[in-house]
Amino acid sequence: MSNTLLQVKDLHVGVQDKEILNGVNLEIPEGETHVLMGPNGTGKSTLGYALIGHPKYEVTEGRIIFDGEDITEEGADERAKKGLFLSFQNPLEVPGVSLSAFIKSALEQVKGERVKAWDFKKKLHATMDVLNMDYEYAERDLNVGFSGGEKKKAEILQLLMLEPKFAILDETDSGLDVDAVRTVSAGIDEYKKRTGGTLLIITHSAKILESLKVDRAHVMIEGKIDRTGGRELVDEINAKGFEEKE
Amino acid sequence: MKEKTYVEDIDRSMYDFRNEDKDAYRLEEGLTEEIVLKISEEKNDPDWVRDLRLESLKIYNSMGLPNWGPSLDGLDINHISTYVKKNAKMADNWEDVPAEVKDTFEKLGIPQAERKSLAGVGAQYDSELVYHNVKDSVAKSGVIYTDIESALKTEYADMIKEHFMKLITPSDHKFAALHGAVWSGGSFVYVPKGVKLDFPLQSYFRLNAKGAGQFEHTLIIVDEGADLHFIEGCSAPKYNVANLHAGAVELFVHKNARLRYSTIENWSKNMYNLNSKRALVDEGGKIEWITGSFGSHLSYLYPMSILRGKGAKMEFTGISFANEGQNLDTGAKVVQLAPETSSVMSTKSISKGGGVCTFRSLVKIGKDAVNSKSAVSCESLMLDSESRSDTIPAMDIRTPYADIGHEAQIGKISDEAVFYLMSRGLSEEDAKTLIVSGFADNVSKELPLEYAIEMNNLIRLEMKGSIG
Q: Where are the alpha helices (DSSP H) in A23-174?
């Protein structure tokens, strides 16, 4: 048995006094890949934001334990330094800050040391190759004018460069064409290969999961984990939808 | 995240050190004919300069304060020393500059910059230049870069007389008149026909004396087909009494010439910066203004470009950053008088901790300026709910054959963007600093590397303690 990396205990989360999560329990052992599915508006992204410490998502009850430490009260930057990562569903545009400069300063923050420019560039380009990204994107302003697919690739690029212990991928496959989904999947494979990292994949579709070994699947309904199962649960949901309870 | 941004006093020690001015020659405070004559005598003015000073003083006394911008109530010219001179002669060898003055400029990185990337440098300390040097190769090409007082004693005396305070005249406004009466120091640059300088010339103005004014005059003439990049930097230590800067910059860009005029202004936050800048551009010539305004308590600054020759161009790229206690009223003006002229103004302003930024633009297109273009865009970023940003555009278009555009955007720093950067490990302060530096990118990417770094350091300094 591997160690539990993430433990969510009876988590209640509200946004502007409206409770969205009401008692989520979740355990993810180190190195596993979990899938979180559920209808729209049921709180999947809220869980992602709450886990990485978005200040607008207020934890009213419950705890988040990461790597043996209670991080419920910690800020987003501290959590990132401990190894949490969220691939955003809608990454923000930041004019005037290049993708490469941003990744470099984030890398220096999480590693706590200066990164040599030459080594960084080499690794960045090798990683962009995995994602079929033109090197030119590294010098462009962060997400500014990127297409939906390019934004998602840029998120996976950050995942591969920062090598967090635990990554949440929030609808990373949504709105992508078949080729882009394949590229993103290859990126996720690469992450597992490089780091043996732990994943929580929030998704609507099974496409992105085809080439991945899924350890557990969870279905969220109305702010709670409704069901948990193995890979077969993903196929079942795909066939029957969320309403069909056993 | 809390709603309000708490702003601490920033660490300005890099600029804030002051030197005692015990061995300086300093004229008494206030402004009288007697004082103006003393300045004139001290400087050995030619008669025409002395007469211009006295004429300017009359105009100064007859004009009222500007009544449309931020309040000038805190400024009392009767308590400003108009002339302070270090007891030192101007040197062209760095070793000959007095130790504490040298120390000041060493701290500001001036000699280092000269060695690295400049074709020539001038340094003014209070009212007079203390150092001037131009690389041999530049001097051999016929480029003149000196202070105006020295140039008045050379063959260029007539050229100066022909141009001096002709573009900015004493009757333009009260502080132009003041400048005409008490001006001292500054730069004279002449770039001969066809000479293109690969490296910039720089002048640095340091106002060290307490309760004093700095009134330097910059006169640059770029002859036909020539090319120059001129950089001015300014700073001062902070005192608890007002200091005044009322310089004048007159730029003449001849046919097919190009002049880039870059300024990184970082006056201390007790400074009244009432500066006037103007350029006159002939056929096919181009003036490019790059301006970063970070310092001063209060600024009135609107560089003006007059495009009088066919196809003349101007580009203005600027950024202002107003922090607590600062009111920066800045902008640009362009007057397009000839066909096929074009102007582009692109400005950004940042306000924080209750700071006020006002952007004023004026685009005037005359009836003969057919097929001319003008595009103005300004973007403002407010970092908290106490700060303020205003945009006041004016246009006066006298021909139907012109293409005019104006865009303005005012926004707040996005909490979501801050969070996005924080989720990758950046602290809140670093995230905000990165966003603000990115916002200021239009200016920093136009500056030589050393200055871009200095500007980013200034932004970092201003962002310190901005945790919300």
A: 44-52, 76-82, 99-111, 117-130, 136-139, 148-162
B48 and B182 in a single domain? The answer is: yes
B429 and B291 belong to one structural domain? no
Q: Are strands B213-214 and B243-245 parallel, antiparallel or unpaired?
A: parallel
Interface test with A, best of B422, B434, B445, B447 (most A CBs within 10 A): B422
The number of folded domains in chain B is 2
What's the ipTM? 0.95
Residues A52-82 pLDDT 10s: 999 999 999 999 999 999 999 999 999 999 9
User: What residues of chain B lie within 8 A of the CB of A105, using their CB?
Assistant: 426, 430, 434
Identify whether B447 is part of a domain.
yes
In this structure, what token pair is assigned to residue A181? 């989904």
B351 domain residue, yes or no: no
Q: Which pLDDT score, from 0 to 100, does residue A246 have?
A: 43
In chain A, residues 40-99 whose CB comes closer than 8 Å to chain B = 52-56, 75-77, 79-81, 85-86, 88, 91-97
- State which of B253, B280, B301 marks the end of a domain: B301
pLDDT of residue B240: 73
One domain for residues B295 and B418: no
DSSP B415: H
Q: Does residue B115 sit within a domain?
A: yes
Mark out chain B residues that contact chain A at CB-CB < 8 A. 1, 414-417, 419-428, 430-431, 434-435, 437-442
pLDDT at B97 over 90: no
Q: In what order do the strands lie in the sheet with B342-351?
A: B128-134, B120-125, B201-206, B227-235, B258-266, B286-293, B313-322, B342-351, B372-382, B402-412
Comparing CB atoms, the residue among A77, A91, A93 nearest residue B427 is A77
- Residues B419 and B280 both lie in one domain: no
Q: What is the mean pLDDT of chain A?
A: 92
Task: Using the predicted structure, report yes or no on whether residue A203 has a pLDDT greater than 90.
Answer: no
| pTM, two decimal places | 0.85
Contact B123, B130 (CB under 8 A): yes
B296-350 pLDDT, tens per residue?
999 999 999 999 999 999 999 999 999 999 999 999 999 999 999 999 999 999 9
Can you give the residue range of the structural domain that contains B426? 414-468
Judge: A102–B422 Cβ closer than 8 Å, yes or no: no
Is B72 inside any structural domain? yes
Distance between terminal CA atoms of chain B?
6
The answer to whether residues B287 and B429 belong to one domain is: no
